[in-house]
Amino acid sequence: MSNKFEFDQLNFTVRPNLKNFLPLATYRLLRISGMEELFGESTGPVLYRLGKILSTYFKTEREDEFLKLVKDLGIGIPEIVERSDDKIIIDLYECMTCAGLPITGKLICDLECGFLAGGIEKVLGRKTKGTQTKSWTAGNDFCEFIIEIF
Length: 150
Ligand SMILES: [Zn+2]
Known about the structure:
Layout: H1 7-11, H2 24-39, H3 43-55, H4 63-72, E1 77-84, E2 87-93, H5 110-124, E3 128-134, E4 143-149
Antiparallel strand pairs: 1-2, 2-4, 3-4
Helix pairs in contact: 3-5
The structure holds zinc ion.
Zinc ion binds next to loops.
């Protein structure tokens, strides 16, 4: 059985009372606390890789489709703020992982970084490497990712 689903399949539920409601706290419990428990110092690289893999699950061929997907999935609201042949800088507002968290000095949005890098890689058909440079946890009010294009 495949573990790949279309967005509509993932979004379909048979939960008469709870429907699609899921507190962000539940996601953050899994993502921040749970993953750190399991993977320790490897959490960042594991989540970056996971993000890249998951970005290939969706049939987005154009950049605008991909950016809409990021918003529809509730990952955050992406905005491309700089673009050249070898680099795209994406600001992500309302990030699912860090928006509103206390400042710790750590950049922890590796899943988002991998997802954005993977999506851009797929759209452009060129290899990418993403690096997070801003975050709520670093004192910013949005996340920023530099996607290097090779
Ligand atoms: Zn973030």
